[in-house]
Design a protein that fits this description.
This protein has a 7-stranded parallel beta sheet with strand order 3-2-1-4-5-7-12, with helices on both faces. The chain has a two-stranded parallel ribbon with strand order 6-15. It contains 10 helices and 15 strands. With 322 residues, it is of the alpha/beta class. It binds nicotinamide-adenine-dinucleotide (NAD).
Length: 322
């Protein structure tokens, strides 16, 4: 029976992945330093057999390796899902050391754990940010040279490279998932929760970062986890790299802001900023080529617009209940 270690297990994607694995009656060990994740997200798993949570900093060796080793001695860990990272992009723009520690060093130390305990499979949450600003074509996995334009993207790309090297050094298998923007609950960060919080705070009007023309692909977290599990099950290589996303042109920030306004405060004025970037390192427009994943047999149930409409409703409910 598989036993799963999830780094970043108290975060948005981690909680959704844990729920799916536990529903399959498989064991889940969640590691998280709670820098961005929340213990309350784990409450639904409190009494679920096979679930355990450990507050651990995965960017430093010592305690991380020792705790994993102790668990491994009790139940053999078969899969590591490495999701721990800095998802607070503005914090990483202000201080690149945050991306270095939370996004790269967590990967470095997770690989050290996998190597030391001989855990056969590693699954990694990478990002479209590794591709940089490529506005003029649909991006396939073999695009190169890769030129990320954010610290976060740079540290994700460095993580991929470190994992590739680990395959050469003996790691049995690695799946690299290049996520698009992912939406749903429990939301911890991202454009929807930012806009909903602003709109709830000042219901007469709210500001949007950039001019609203940024256009990107969005995937609902339910589809994302489905794709991760599908790739883990069906890809046959030792090193598998997949774009995960809907097969569409995405949706603009203007459309998202209007969806939020209509749901939260229909009379609110939307005030747009200048330029087509929300922040330093923001990629204004990207479109994925998802042929590789389609050929493997998986397609998203929800396109970008459906994912946004559903997530806005879910996150508005989440925020109203806070
Ligand atoms: N959500 C998205 O749109 C998106 C897009 C592309 C890639 N990703 C990647 O997917 C993964 C999950 O993202 P998410 O949206 O769930 O973000 P999240 O912030 O909700 O989850 C990340 C978790 O990692 C934890 N963490 C950070 N540093 C840590 C450390 N040193 N030790 C232990 N835990 C640590 C945080 O506390 C948090 O719970 C991340 O690797 C992220 O970069 C997410």
């Amino acid at each position: 029976m598989p036993v799963h270690l999830i780094t970043g297990g108290a975060g948005f994607v981690g909680v959704n992945l844990a729920r799916r694995l536990l529903a399959r009656k498989e064991d889940v060990i969640a590691f998280d330093d709670l820098s961005l994740g929340h213990k309350e997200f784990l409450k639904p798993f409190g009494n679920v057999p096979g679930f355990e949570f450990h507050e651990i900093d995965c960017s430093a060796g010592g305690a991380f390796l020792e705790r994993a080793r102790a668990i491994h001695a009790q139940k053999t860990i078969t899969d590591v899902w490495h999701l721990a990272a800095n998802s607070d992009i503005p914090a990483g723009v202000k201080d690149p050391r945050i991306d270095l520690a939370r996004t790269f060093l967590t990967t470095f130390e997770t690989l050290a754990v996998a190597e030391s305990l001989r855990i056969p499979r590693l699954h990694f949450a990478s990002s479209s940010a590794i591709y940089g600003d490529v506005p003029d074509r649909a991006i396939a996995e073999d695009l190169g040279p890769l030129e990320p334009i954010s610290n976060y993207g740079a540290m994700k790309l460095a993580s991929e490279a470190q994992i590739r090297a680990a395959i050469e050094a003996g790691l049995e298998r690695a799946d690299i998932f290049r996520f698009p923007n992912v939406v749903g609950t429990p939301a911890t960060h991202g454009v929807i929760i930012d806009l909903i919080r602003k709109c709830r705070k000042t219901p007469n009007g709210f500001d949007v970062l950039g001019d609203g023309t940024q256009q990107k692909a969005y995937l609902h977290v339910e589809d994302l986890v489905d794709a991760m599990l599908f790739i883990a099950e069906h890809a046959t290589g030792r090193y598998n790299v997949f774009n995960i996303g809907p097969d569409d042109d995405g949706i603009t920030v203007k459309n998202i802001a209007e969806t939020v306004r209509d749901r939260v405060s229909p009379e609110a004025e939307i005030r747009y900023g200048q330029g087509n970037k929300g922040w330093t390192g923001d990629v204004p427009r990207f479109r994925y080529d998802t042929h590789k994943l389609t050929a493997l047999g998986w397609t998203a149930r929800m396109g970008s617009t459906a994912a946004i409409v559903r997530a806005v409703a879910e996150i508005a409910d989440q925020e109203a209940a806070r």
